[in-house]
């Protein structure tokens, strides 16, 4: 119990400690749909939902979930029963205008690694993506499993234009680009943070609302959602007049208007 309270306090301190702040220059609210780990259903089921609405998402890729890596052994944090991407899925997603973001090479808890290990991980992941996409530089990062501390915020924010965690909330006013807030699309998260309430808040503050999810299927994992739920979130955002952008495009809008 004590360990859980200490960890919760540490997470809150990490979230509140600013590292890379900017004043949001948004004149209208925006949103982003992001997919962590790149389960195959996020592409085969999730992407068509977005594309029907003329929307593109951000797919955070870790080489640890590639078929070759999975054959050598499971990485840290795989979801049991979930099938992950094929290399051609990354190529197709990028070709169709979706953003490919970095999720580290090995998907390990960042605070448990040294800066040298983190550097090696992001460089190896960059090489993995470059072998598939050519001279593509990933500018968005998502902390694996949402694990982050002040040291890793500082380290990653010097290497990526924007870093995203899993701390819930809206990015508005003075925004910390080293740990952008987001809300999970999974049913349990949306019970606590209903989409209608989030939309009211992001419109009132002209903010940036980021969602994340993993698999998209009729029987999703704990961290996934059904196609109907993803469709509902996208539809609610668009009906509210909220433009949905990839992480990198939303960042440009936030910083430069």
Structure description:
The chain is α/β, with parallel strands linked by helices. The chain has a single domain (21-256), classed as TIM Barrel (Alpha-Beta Barrel). 43% of the residues lie in helices and 14% in strands. It is built from ten helices and ten strands. The chain has helices at residues 2-16, 40-52, 67-72, 87-95, 115-133, 150-157, 187-192, 195-205, 227-239, 247-256, and strands at residues 21-23, 30-36, 58-61, 99-102, 140-142, 162-164, 174-176, 183-184, 208-213, 243-244. The strands form three sheets. Strands 2, 3, 4, 8, 9 and 10 form a six-stranded parallel sheet that branches. Strands 1-7 form a two-stranded antiparallel sheet. Strands 5-6 form a two-stranded parallel ribbon. Helix 2 packs parallel to helix 9. It is globular, with a radius of gyration of 17 Å. The model has no long low-confidence stretch (mean pLDDT 93).
Count of individual beta strands: 10
CATH homologous superfamily assignment: Glycoside hydrolase/deacetylase
Averaged pLDDT: 93
How does CATH name the architecture?
Alpha-Beta Barrel
Structurally, the number of domains stands at: 1
Major sheet characteristics = 6 strands, parallel
Quick structural gist:
The chain is an alpha/beta fold and 257 residues long. The chain is 43% helix and 14% strand.
Describe the structure using short key phrases:
about 260 residues; single chain; 6-stranded parallel beta sheet; TIM Barrel; alpha/beta; 10 strands; two-stranded antiparallel sheet; about 45% helix
């Amino acid at each position: 119990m004590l360990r859980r309270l200490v960890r919760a306090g540490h997470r809150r301190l990490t979230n509140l400690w600013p590292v890379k702040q900017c004043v949001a220059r948004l004149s209208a609210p925006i949103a982003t749909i992001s997919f962590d780990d790149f389960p195959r259903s996020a592409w085969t089921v999730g992407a068509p939902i977005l594309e029907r609405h003329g929307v593109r998402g951000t797919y955070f890729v870790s080489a640890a979930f590639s078929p070759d890596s999975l054959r050598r052994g499971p990485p840290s944090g795989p979801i049991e029963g979930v099938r992950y991407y094929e290399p051609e899925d990354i190529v197709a997603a990028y070709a169709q205008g979706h953003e490919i973001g970095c999720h580290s090479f090995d998907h390990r808890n960042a605070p448990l690694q040294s800066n040298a290990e983190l550097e090696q991980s992001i460089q190896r992941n960059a090489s993995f993506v470059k072998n598939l996409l050519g001279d593509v530089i990933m500018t968005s990062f998502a902390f694996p499993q949402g694990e982050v501390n002040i040291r890793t915020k500082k380290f990653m924010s010097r290497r990526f234009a924007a870093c995203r965690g899993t701390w819930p909330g809206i990015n508005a006013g003075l925004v910390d680009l080293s740990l952008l807030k987001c809300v999970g699309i999974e049913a349990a998260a949306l019970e606590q943070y209903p989409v209608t309430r989030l939309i009211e808040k992001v419109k009132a503050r002209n903010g940036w609302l980021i969602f994340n999810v993993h698999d998209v299927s009729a029987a999703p994992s704990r961290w996934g959602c059904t196609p109907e739920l993803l469709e509902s979130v996208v539809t609610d955002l668009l009906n509210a007049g909220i433009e949905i952008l990839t992480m990198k495009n939303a960042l440009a809008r936030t910083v430069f208007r």
